[in-house]
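User: Teach me something about this protein's shape.
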Amino acid sequence: MPTTNPQNTPTLQIDHSPAYELLVSFFAYTRKTHHKSMDAGTPWIRETRKTLPPAFAARLDDLGSSISTLFHGFDFLIHQCPPEHRTTAAAFLTWAASLPVGDLFQLLAPYVDVPADIVSLRDQCVDLLHHWNAEYFQTLDPSILQALAADAEQKNTLLGTLPDMDVIELATNGVRYEVTPELRTILLVPQYHLRPISTMTKYNTSMSIYYSIDLPAPADGGPAPALLRLTKSLGEESRLRLLRFIGSGPDSTRSFTEVVQSAGLSMSTVHHHLMALRGAGLITAHGEGNVTYYTLRRDTVSRLSHDLLSYFLPDSAE
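Assistant: First, the predicted structure itself:
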């Protein structure tokens, strides 16, 4: 069962800059393991690829699993960027490219292990992101960046009014983590391109968490993205059975291994179903060491009827 460690209180910092979304959009395109679980999915990948010069598209295809190593700790470099250089993605890249090796070590060392070839890695990252910004990101709808900034500001108002773990679970729509003695800093950042996925990257003494946000419901009367995601996630019998199994466990909690054994499905299929249920806010994922536990989020289930009635009968009284 998941546990908590109230004696260890790492610092939670909520941050936003267009440079974060530049990085996230780059990962959304290049990390193929995410494509199946993203709302934008394969159609966005196909349309974006059409806009890229063939040579650059091929270069991105060749990155493969090296992306994680290449961009190790890059989010904390964004976090350390001075305010005057973080208002645009281009401004951040210019600043990052100008940093001497000593400054790079000084900025990153408190958060991550800094590799000896940090200058070479920095140069490769900046070059890739410079081209990505020129070919894709600089034409992004400004309302997306405005929504990200507004959400980060709103989440910052919760600090001190809720326990940090509750702020993280609220932001991520169902992610909790094990507090380890060495953890000192948690960076919480809103993102759009990977929605509804929330990602967590652990370093030695720090962790970065990217949580997804949605834009407002379409003006044509379509359902809000969260409601559409929720109803879609319940459209498969296997997922309903998974929710029933999780809900029937002690404290409505089951480990990933227990869920796989019960489902009679492949591990990858179960993982995909759990990603969909987590993205819809129906389950909470608790990370504890190498074990992940899932808990039914009763509040989401209880709210479903109200949300459906509010959509079907928008003019009715509460």
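Now, about its shape. Confidence is low (pLDDT under 50) at residues 1-6. The first helix runs from residue 18 to 30. If you'd like, I can walk through any region in more detail.
User: That's plenty for now, thanks!
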